[in-house]
Amino acid sequence: MAKEWGYASHNGPEHWHELYPIAKGDNQSPIELHTKDIKHDPSLQPWSASYDPGSAKTILNNGKTCRVVFDDTYDRSMLRGGPLSGPYRLRQFHLHWGSSDDHGSEHTVDGVKYAAELHLVHWNPKYNTFGEALKQPDGIAVVGIFLKIGREKGEFQILLDALDKVKTKGKEAPFTHFDPSCLFPACRDYWTYHGSFTTPPCEECIVWLLLKEPMTVSSDQMAKLRSLFASAENEPPVPLVGNWRPPQPVKGRVVRASFK
Ligand SMILES: [Zn+2]
């Protein structure tokens, strides 16, 4: 594999384990969800997010995704409840998407691929640093939200409008006063399981909360996301699309539902 991982045939998901052996581990993400096999767990609590819009800092194009970064030096933007044993701090969110509207999500639901998947990454401050949390099975909590094509979502447009400032790899711009809970669907029902980051090094430290209800965005909004480049300003242009990892083996793990 080339020095840097990616999503192309020479450095894509089939090659990641060469540099990151855990990518073939027993708790990898994403997975396929088969809803008829998923049991409701009545012990699962509702979850809540209280985000401080002032903790949003920057938006960045790292050539693999666009990411919004938050100040996580103290308890400002927090996720609580659900399957979590304590509060988790929001660190960043980012997206995965396809080359067209008919695929792009990482998790699939009964064979359905959504157009994109939003990941809000939180860490457990009982481990003191993000780096330490990455080494713990319950170190990270990711809220995953599917993006489905339909009506335009106004709140999502705020993010899309900022993409013009980070068109190419390596660009970063201020992105402040944004509360990502404005993107959440009305229904808080979720599936949960233990898994990993879907990008190298694919650490197995994640409590997943996958929301059952997708958020709806327009086809034009998806097209705007695909207008980013995986290449730097001074390089031949390569569109940033297809940044999703396919489903990984479940290996006996159990997915639980918060709802009947
Ligand atoms: Zn992700």
Automatic annotation (TrEMBL):
Its main location: cytoplasm. Belongs to the alpha-carbonic anhydrase family. GO terms for biological process: response to bacterium. It comes from Peromyscus maniculatus bairdii (Prairie deer mouse). PROSITE patterns: ALPHA_CA_1, ALPHA_CA_2. It catalyses: hydrogencarbonate + H(+) = CO2 + H2O. GO terms for cellular component: cytosol. Its EC number is 4.2.1.1. CDD domains: alpha_CA_I_II_III_XIII. It holds the Pfam family Carb_anhydrase. Keywords: Acetylation, Cytoplasm, Glutathionylation, Lyase, Metal-binding, Phosphoprotein, Zinc. Reversible hydration of carbon dioxide. Residues 3-259 form the Alpha-carbonic anhydrase domain. GO terms for molecular function: carbonate dehydratase activity; nickel cation binding; zinc ion binding. It is found in: Cytoplasm. This is Carbonic anhydrase. Its cofactor is Zn(2+).
